[in-house]
Automatic annotation (TrEMBL):
InterPro entries: Alpha-L-AF_C (IPR010720), ASD1_cat (IPR055235), GH (IPR017853), Glyco_hydro_b (IPR013780). It comes from Streptomyces capillispiralis. This is non-reducing end alpha-L-arabinofuranosidase. GO terms for molecular function: alpha-L-arabinofuranosidase activity. Residues 292-493 form the Alpha-L-arabinofuranosidase C-terminal domain. Belongs to the glycosyl hydrolase 51 family. It is an enzyme of class 3 (hydrolase). GO terms for biological process: L-arabinose metabolic process; polysaccharide catabolic process. It catalyses: Hydrolysis of terminal non-reducing alpha-L-arabinofuranoside residues in alpha-L-arabinosides. Homohexamer; trimer of dimers. Transmembrane segments: none annotated.
Length: 500
């Protein structure tokens, strides 16, 4: 049976915020050290930034980059990470049982963003695990105040004359998680988040603040956590965060392929909770969603790895090597974000380099693209504009976790120049899926490109030995005639169909 939907310019979801294509650099494993930063590497510049990585980061098309954690931030002392490198202390990083050398710090992070280009925007997290209001304010003053105070002058003395201009701030990280250093109840966190937000706004009313939501929809405290935190912070913050990671459990690949069903319901449930609190407060304000950690992550494999560590520097941690199947799920997660672009206005792919990342590196050696690199770079490139409302009529398949699920998962984005890109995933593992799209009133007349990520071997991956084993290829036979797009989606595939 053919999967179908209709696109109409009159029916839209909302404008895509470029921040939807954010990412995340945490002091974890080799994300920073030998990932982004490797003095002495053949491609490293004078600041130790790997140019091969920088080129791939630009090609990936990331915008906001969240930093420095993650769980790491709950033990973070920002002042350790500034000033002369030789004076910076080595510290225990409790989150990842590693030793943090602080050779890369706040100033290096800002310099890295500036090297990426104007599209890269800082998104800084403050430590609300082991620290509180005072330290958040000190960091804000150091980073953003122009000059003439002790901390802003210290920044200038450290060589950064220009303020960093950090606008987006995360008020802690995953404070609902028992694993978090300084874990809090919703009431405790709501109070400290509110007071930190109030004080940060006294320095600068223009900051954009993200309150911690749940670390996953399956958390026992989910929804009650958001409601409690927002009751305290509704007028003081702009966003609530969501985090979600997916992996196949017990070999259940069919449910894994439907992971976006969970992601979309998570988003819709958080929107409902935000709006419920807003209604109770009789507020006109809407809280938006910052999906600031999302990805495929073989989490069940990593837990034992971390507890076995004996405080190494930059160990190989969370270095998942992604297959074609993983990339198709990953693409579907991107589709889920785009389908909710009206309320999800920030999202960060966790993470950027080496750690559950689209970009991998070898110390002293090359950098390469994982399979997940391609859906992200294509979505960032062609997923800018107005998201069109897509309601699919699709054949279905049965999944253990989500019951009957559509084989087709899709969205479409109309750019300012009128061109339209359809992003579509065929979740079916064995059969091709014919697709028919009615394009009433869009004014597009030709297929520019139909790019596919799929492979006869769904387990194919890119590795150090074979870094270009998997790349997207062009699909045959896709046509647009009489206002109808007709295509065939290969089994287990991520598709980008560009129309003009
Ligand atoms: O991205 C890896 C970890 O996942 C982050 O440190 C934490 O916030 C989440 O649990």
């Amino acid at each position: 049976r053919t999967a179908r939907f209709t696109l109409d310019p009159a029916f839209t979801v909302g404008e895509v915020n470029p921040r939807l294509f954010g990412s995340f650099v945490e002091h974890l494993g080799r994300c920073v050290y030998t990932g982004v930063f490797e003095p002495g590497h053949p491609t490293a510049d004078a600041d130790g930034i790997r140019q091969d990585v920088l080129d791939l980061v630009r090609e990936l098309g990331v915008t906001a980059i969240r930093y420095p954690g993650g769980n790491f931030v709950s033990g973070y002392k920002w002042e350790d990470s500034v000033g002369p490198v030789e004076d910076r202390p080595r510290r225990l990083d409790l989150a990842w049982r590693s030793t943090e050398t602080n050779r890369f710090g706040l100033s290096e992070y800002i310099a890295f963003l500036r090297k990426i280009g104007p599209q890269a925007e800082p998104m800084m997290a403050v430590n609300l695990g082991t620290r509180g209001v005072a330290e958040a304010l000190e960091l804000q003053e150091y980073a953003n105040h122009p000059a003439g105070t002790a901390l802003s002058d210290l920044r200038v003395e450290h060589g950064d004359k220009d303020p960093f201009g950090i606008r987006m701030w995360c008020l802690g990280n995953e404070m609902d998680g028992p694993w978090q250093t300084g874990h809090k109840t919703a009431e405790e966190y709501g109070r400290i988040a509110a007071e930190t937000a109030r004080a940060m706004r006294q320095i600068d009313p223009g900051v954009e603040l993200v309150a911690c939501g749940s670390s996953g929809q399956s958390m026992e405290t989910f929804a009650e956590w958001e409601a409690t935190v927002l009751k305290e912070t509704y007028d003081l913050v702009d966003y609530i965060s969501l985090h979600a990671y997916y992996e196949p459990l017990d070999g259940d690949v069919d449910s894994f392929l439907a992971s976006a069903v969970d992601m979309e319901s998570f988003i819709e449930n958080v929107v409902a909770t935000c709006d419920h609190v807003g209604a109770r407060l009789k507020s006109k304000k809407k809280i938006n969603l910052s999906f600031d950690e999302w990805n495929v992550w073989y989490l069940s494999r990593t837990e034992a790895q971390v507890s076995a560590l004996d405080w190494p520097e930059a160990p190989r941690l969370l270095e998942d090597n992604y297959s074609v199947t993983d990339a198709v799920v990953f693409g579907s997660l991107l589709i889920a974000l785009l389908r909710h672009a009206d309320r999800v206005t920030v999202a960060c792919l966790a993470q950027l380099v080496n750690v559950i990342a689209p970009i991998m590196t070898e110390p002293g050696g090359p950098a390469w693209r994982q399979t997940t690199f391609f859906p992200f770079s294509q979505a960032s490139r062609y997923g800018r504009g107005e998201v069109l409302d897509v309601r699919v009529d699709s054949p279905t398949y049965e999944t253990r976790k989500y019951g009957e699920t559509d084989l087709l998962h899709a969205t479409a984005v109309r750019a300012d120049d009128g061109s339209v890109t359809v992003f579509a995933v065929n979740r079916g593992r064995t059969a091709s899926l014919p697709l028919d799209v009615a394009l009433g009133g869009l004014g597009v007349t030709s297929v520019v490109e139909h790019s596919v990520l799929s492979d006869a071997d769904p387990d194919a991956r890119n590795t150090l030995a074979e870094p270009e084993r998997v790349t997207p290829h062009a699909a045959e036979g896709t046509t647009l005639a009489d206002g109808r797009l007709s295509a065939v989606l290969e089994p287990l595939s991520w598709n980008v169909i560009r129309l003009a």
